[in-house]
From TrEMBL:
Stated family: Belongs to the class-II aminoacyl-tRNA synthetase family.
GO annotation terms (biological process): asparaginyl-tRNA aminoacylation
Species annotation: Panicum virgatum
Keyword NADP: no
EC number in record: 6.1.1.22
Coiled coil spans: none
Every Aminoacyl-transfer RNA synthetases class-II family profile domain range: 216-558
CC terms in the record's Gene Ontology section: mitochondrion
CDD domains, sorted: AsxRS_core, EcAsnRS_like_N
Membrane spanning residue stretches: none
Catalytic activity reported: tRNA(Asn) + L-asparagine + ATP = L-asparaginyl-tRNA(Asn) + AMP + diphosphate + H(+)
Protein name: asparagine--tRNA ligase
GO molecular function: asparagine-tRNA ligase activity; ATP binding; nucleic acid binding
Keywords, sorted A to Z: Aminoacyl-tRNA synthetase, ATP-binding, Ligase, Nucleotide-binding, Protein biosynthesis
């Protein structure tokens, strides 16, 4: 009985002994001036020393009855970051007089006769915290180590700034250099560097204004994506990265194999790779006993779960071994791929527009006058970063995005789009002809010129230029496919109604010389309770480009993978 009571006391002790603090203190919790560097360098403190000491008493009392007792794990608390201080409407004015601890990386250090200004950025926003030091500041003897790129902890009091660039600054009482940075070799200096150069130091480019802003906008778009689908009842499914199927049927896939051993110096010799009698690679001796690849799409696997859960989406990395060195192609990229059961192409287009619109409470009805959801979200939640892009990357981008918000989507058939292009009398680099795929220049002309900046959906493409899984229309020449085009990017979303009829799907596999045995499980979905269904794929990096104005897709992803480059 006594042991049970003691155990209950131990379980309750941490909750009873937590110290109540103000919301500001809970966020900023400046460390005591006597705190050692190990604590000051980054630990979040859950309990004060007094509370922990008090906790030792019941723990000791229980030890005899229950055995050895370890220390309680501290409570996780969100730190007050620069964005929390400077991101409000008053830009931090309400915090004047409050103590604050800032942890981040030095952008610049300007020493004057009696005062030194250090700009510190913690990555939470574009703005730096201007930190004002004097020779009386504790730790000022380390000032020679406060160089661009160094990591520091600065503690002090928020004060009104005398300068015109910011409303508040930090009057520093103590500075601690956590990690030094050699100013003679640190590759990112105050002067502007080309994006081509920054790709060669991709491990450091997040510390620049441009790539910090791109990353925060990318994060906001990912959050808004999950929120949209979750709010509309979709289930997120983790599709496999390794697959034995070619979703697009194009054959541009990366092999996954263990036949090329890394144990031998310089890698495997050709003679050591197992082969069949006719000289082909013997995949039966490989890890999966068959050819395996990095996936080009999560769609086929997504369809299996849509056939059970109705509405699902995948959001993950995909790969394509296309030897293309352009500003529009990556070998590794992220895809958003929803699948809707009991749906046709019209439902698919409605979902695609709803994803980019702020939908009404009626669900996925095609909206008429709604706001571009993703655009609205980043304009409202990434204002400082969007202002930066508007000034330094694409002048007028905010006006362009707002212009898209105010304009309705339109859709037309592929046949009508070809006739529009032929009738434009414009000389294109690539030919325009029925049966040929539309190129980026054609897509941008349609959305930017012909329809004056409106988002445009083109539907019903020739079946010869589309994938095997797309549902054949009654005309026998086209499939129920659609591409959603936006200004500056061209195709942003590509989707279709999937072929739910077993005989038609088998015929399409035969037409494209694809091995039906590799798709046995995909065909099973048509054998057992097949339903009309549809879905689309959205290249996430193209969405980032559209939202930020970044012209090269290699700058829309943290570590670009392209032909001849797999660094970092």
């Amino acid at each position: 009985m006594a042991a049970a009571a003691a155990a209950r006391l131990l379980r309750l002790a941490p909750r009873r002994l937590q110290v109540k603090t103000s919301p500001l203190a809970a966020l900023s919790f400046p460390l005591p001036r006597t705190a050692p560097l190990a604590a000051a360098s980054g630990r979040r403190q859950s309990f004060c020393a007094a509370a922990q000491a008090s906790a030792d008493a019941p723990a000791a009392a229980v030890a005899a009855a229950t055995g050895p007792v370890g220390e309680a794990v501290g409570e996780f608390r969100k730190r007050l970051r620069v964005a929390d201080v400077k991101g409000g409407e008053d830009e931090g004015a309400a915090l004047v007089g409050k103590e604050l601890a800032v942890r981040g990386w030095v952008r610049t250090c300007r020493a004057q006769r009696t005062v030194t200004f250090v700009e510190v950025n913690d990555g939470s926003c574009l703005s730096n915290m201007q930190c004002v030091l004097t020779p009386d500041t504790e730790g000022y003897d380390q000032i020679d180590s406060v160089t661009t790129g160094a990591s520091v902890l600065v503690e002090g009091v928020v004060a009104s700034s005398q300068g015109g660039k910011q409303k508040v600054e930090l009057k520093v009482s103590k500075i601690t250099v956590i990690g030094k940075s050699d100013p003679t070799s640190f590759p990112i200096q105050k002067k502007r560097a080309s994006r081509e150069f920054l790709r060669t130091v991709a491990h450091l480019r997040p510390r620049t204004n441009t790539f910090g802003a791109v990353t925060r906008v990318r994060n906001a778009l990912a959050y808004a994506t999950h929120k949209f689908f979750q709010d509309n009842g979709f289930v997120w499914v983790s599709s496999p990265i390794i697959t034995a199927s070619d979703c697009e049927g194009a054959g541009e896939q990366f092999y996954v194999t263990t036949l090329l051993s890394n144990s031998a110096e310089g890698g495997s010799l050709l003679k050591d790779i197992p082969a069949t009698k006719d000289g082909r690679v013997d995949w039966s001796q490989d890890f999966f006993c068959k050819p395996a690849f990095l996936t080009v799409s999560g769609q086929l696997n997504g369809e299996t779960y849509a056939s059970a859960l109705s509405d699902i989406y995948t959001f993950g990395p995909t790969f394509r071994a296309e030897n293309s060195n352009t500003a529009r192609h990556l070998a590794e990229f992220w895809m958003i791929e929803p699948e809707l059961a009991f749906a046709d192409l019209n439902d698919d287009m409605a979902c695609a527009t709803a994803y980019l619109h702020e939908i009404s409470s009626r669900g996925l009805e095609s909206p008429n006058y709604c706001c571009f959801m993703q655009v609205k979200y980043i304009i409202e939640n990434c204002k400082e970063d969007m202002d930066f892009f508007n000034t330094w990357v694409e002048k007028g981008i905010i006006d362009r995005l707002n212009d898209v918000v105010e304009k309705k989507f339109v859709h037309l058939s592929y046949t009508d789009a070809v006739e529009l292009l032929l009738g434009s009398k414009k000389k294109f680099e690539f030919p325009v002809k029925w049966g040929l795929d539309l190129q980026s220049e054609h897509e941008r002309y349609i959305t930017e010129v012909a329809f004056g900046g409106r988002p445009v959906i083109i539907r019903d493409y020739p079946k010869e230029i589309k994938a095997f899984y797309m549902r054949q229309n009654d005309d026998g020449k086209t499939v129920a496919a659609m591409d959603l085009l936006v200004p500056r990017v061209g195709e942003l979303i590509g989707g279709s109604q999937r072929e739910e009829r077993l005989d038609h799907l088998e015929a399409r596999l035969d037409e494209q010389n694809l091995n039906k045995e590799s798709y046995w499980w995909y065909l099973d979905l048509r054998r057992y309770g097949s339903v009309p269904h549809a879905g689309f794929g959205l290249g996430f990096e193209r969405l980032v480009q559209f939202a930020t104005g970044i012209d090269n897709i290699r700058d829309a992803i943290p570590f670009p993978r392209v032909p001849g480059s797999a660094e970092f």
